[in-house]
Design goal:
7 strands; mainly beta
Length: 114
């Protein structure tokens, strides 16, 4: 896996997304856990997914979807309104040819001061 050093998330362009992915990881007892998560947003460095399960930061995960298979590290896990939100940092070039069916690029020009 490439070196994983991500700049502050707020400084990275992120696209909104609504795509189901499979996330596989080992729990603290060494059992393999597979769960379906919803991609909330994505950037060149990784994903934010929503899951019914909590996961410890630092845990290595595998992400799978049609046209996507990658590995990454959980950077944070926090309880949102309805689920746990995981910040996943993935190796550079993680996205490859993957094109989610539901992705929305935000108009960044509205965010820039004039």
């Amino acid at each position: 896996m490439d070196q994983l050093e991500t700049p502050d998330r707020r400084h990275q362009p992120r696209n909104l997304c609504s795509e189901l992915v499979e996330v596989v990881f080992e729990d603290q007892q060494g059992n393999t856990v597979s769960t379906v998560a919803l991609v909330e947003d994505l950037s060149d460095q990784g994903l934010c997914v929503s899951s019914s399960l909590p996961v410890s930061p630092g845990r290595i995960v595998r992400i799978r979807a049609e046209g996507l298979e990658s590995r990454g590290v959980v950077r944070y896990c926090e309880l949102g309104e309805y689920s746990y939100l995981w910040g996943l940092e993935l190796a550079s070039g993680w996205r490859g040819e993957w094109q989610p069916h539901h992705e929305l690029a935000l108009d960044r020009s509205e965010e820039e001061p004039t």
